[in-house]
Amino acid sequence: MRDHFEIRDADGAGRIGRLEVPRAGQSIETPALLPVINPNTLTIEPAELESEFDVDILITNSYIIRQTDRLRQQALDEGLHELLDFDGAIMTDSGSFQLAEYGDIEVTTEEILEFQYEIGSDIGTPVDIPTPPDVSRQQAESDLDITAEALADAEALDCGEMLINAPVQGSTFPDLRERAGRQAAETDLDVFPIGAVVPMMNNYRYDDLVAAVAASKRGLSADCPVHLFGAGHPMMLALAVALGCDLFDSAAYALYARAGRYLTVSGTEQLEDLDYFPCSCPICADHTPAEIRAVDDDDRRERLLAEHNLHVTFEELRRIKQAIRSGNLLELVDRRARGHPAMYNGYRALLDHADQLERDDPVSKGTFFYTSPESARRPEVLRHHQRLDRLSTPAQLLLTEAGAPDSDEYDAAWRVVAPFGPFPRELSDSYPFTAAVPDRPDRGGQLAAADGVRALVEANPETEFTLAIDEWHADAVDQIPERVTVESLSAIQGQ
């Protein structure tokens, strides 16, 4: 049991937690964003991140520091926190990114972790192999074996209070991701980054990203704080949190600003294409796009865009936390999915794992809002269908979309509400049946309701069922078992 990570609230697989970082003397609330700091090219000083954005944890690259004579000596003499002028927690990467991009690096896990410890890192990282998507299975397995050796080497070191990352690799093979997650969780290491996903995000392969993260999470235990390496665009944070990721690192705020790119929760805009800012952060409130374009100083213009990019990203994280607290995280994911077709693919892929989300999803929370056909596939609907066999039914049962009829023909009348299907009327004031659903259910909701009817009927072979409905889609009606008598709702109401 990892006592340095505590889950405080949850919705779906998303959670609000506290990560204790003992060497820094910090308690970090998650989900948390770690701005990436390159000490050679600072867009915003770490001290300003701390004072202006309340950043309490960031990430920098220990390999770059070690390979740069000036930085290495200063870090060894003064310490990493003094080098960066930052009082919060600092995570350090190991050079694995450089290994993936440029080939071999001249450092071992033991050497780089000892260096990270010596310069005062709070969370260190071994040298794993970030296996890119779509490689052969042979390469993915070979790389995974090397990463497993790196984790074993890291576990054997005495690094005092420094937490150590246990990266989870496996390319685009779900079984390898799950195996890697299980192997990492079996170590006594502390934080669990899911690696080599940046190529998927760069190519808008959010459905593949979901598959990789979901598989990794199946291997990891619930007490494992999960870091999604390289993920920091605000448009995908809600999706990633809903999958159960807790930490994110972003170089996008600076890299995109350098290229004149403006981040939003629905995508990326080019500054030159904007006439108005769709944001009310301090930068956007005080400037127009034309004014920022007119700034002669490239560094100043880049700084302004970077500040906006951070503001919009931290605002989204706060919105996500409130959604978890309110119990409507998946509705936020649904809204974000409408911003880009690739995000919609990711949301649909997320709901392919509704059974996995259901295991962590609270059984009672705020009102369920049916906002799209995908709402019919949410964990709450799946849970109700799975538990219908726990309900006892009378000999003659009417399932109806409307109120109970004035008739003694049936022993009881249960409600049928899309997407849940049937449930006893006495549960109408219980979650999730207090749901706000459209008066005119769509096909997806009716198909889900039909699945619920089928589950109830199959669990109760001795009961005679009548289903009273109007204007259901033909394929939803076709899913109703043959032994159910389907009647017109208006005819039933007239009895």
From TrEMBL:
Catalytic activity line of the entry:
guanosine(15) in tRNA + 7-cyano-7-carbaguanine = 7-cyano-7-carbaguanosine(15) in tRNA + guanine
Organism of origin is Halohasta litorea
Report residues binding substrate: 128, 196
Positions of Zn(2+) binding: 279, 281, 284
| Cofactor binding mode and count | Binds 1 zinc ion per subunit.
**EC code:** 2.4.2.48
* Family affiliation: Belongs to the archaeosine tRNA-ribosyltransferase family.
Protein known as? tRNA-guanine(15) transglycosylase
Q: Name the encoding gene, please.
A: tgtA
What GO molecular functions are on record for this protein?
A: pentosyltransferase activity; zinc ion binding
The record's listing under Gene3D superfamilies reads: Queuine tRNA-ribosyltransferase-like (3.20.20.105)
Query: What's in the keyword line of the UniProt record?
Result: Glycosyltransferase, Metal-binding, Transferase, tRNA processing, Zinc
Q: Which residues form the tRNA-guanine(15) transglycosylase-like domain?
A: 13-341
Q: Which pathway does the database say it acts in?
A: tRNA modification; archaeosine-tRNA biosynthesis
Say if the entry is tagged with keyword Secreted.
Answer: no
